[in-house]
């Protein structure tokens, strides 16, 4: 599968952004960051719009955590700006963000309720309001029976629920979550997904990173694929998938190797167990392909295939890596 250049970004987001954006969201604007000789981010640019669930995907070391830390202001960029609602972020803006750091950051010996009350107080809630919010999120995230346990005595999945509660307890205006789904069981994934959807429905922009691409494909309004510190593709999953060169799966058990060679606009990707996967350009004539397949014997399947986000991701990373 190959990609048309329309959605492969090369440092200019202007064609990707529409004019219908109601208000500015969380804007990451040409952020660069080096660690010594390592270029972690290079002109990283994208926006998470109000009410949008934005999935941030990339290989290990691509720069997701660095971007999120800079967005939160816990790490300084070498250049570039992060804005929320049109204004550069400040210490007081940061207090209105909810953050789930990759390294988590709960106090292991603190009890769940005390932990959440403490977090809420840190973000400026009064004692009573902090207690109410902590109890609400404990109930909502299924942690009632664990509320008096030390965090270190919880399972990893439950610790993650507490971490999510800690990101939400002060009713943030923006959510930035670093791999919130990692290590969760299917029920906890559903709880997490539901909470994120509710938050976006109330107008909050949510940025989260994940290596679980099936989940990202299912949940997100838009996806940003990053590679080596750069945004290389950013759009809805549907737009990304429709921008990829289509594939045809042909099950013709008697077809010899190379049976489709020479048909204009067609490239064989694989052929095994009687099943051939072909890449077909827009101008390729699928009836001609079908005729060629039938000429070899019976055809049991002839179907178009839309690449999954995981396939798109592998392809983008391979393409960009080869440049
Ligand atoms: N404190 C640091 N000192 C030196 N290099 C760092 C530091 N933090 C990150 N890096 C480097 O910056 C690059 C980006 O790392 P980052 O953690 O942002 O990637 P990531 O996309 O979050 O990866 P992962 O999916 O593995 O969590 C990597 O090359 C990493 O080794």
Automatic annotation (TrEMBL):
First and last residue of the signal peptide: none
Pfam families: ABC_tran, DrrA1-3_C
InterPro entries attached to this UniProt entry: AAA+_ATPase, ABC_transporter-like_ATP-bd, ABC_transporter-like_CS, DrrA1/2-like_C, P-loop_NTPase
Keywords of this entry: ATP-binding, Nucleotide-binding, Transport
Any one Gene Ontology molecular-function term assigned to this protein's record: ATP binding
Source organism superkingdom: Bacteria
Every ABC transporter domain range: 26-253
Record has Repeat as a keyword: no
PANTHER family for the chain: ABC TRANSPORTER, ATP-BINDING PROTEIN (PTHR43335:SF4)
Protein family (similarity comment): Belongs to the ABC transporter superfamily.
Name of the protein this chain belongs to: ABC-2 type transport system ATP-binding protein
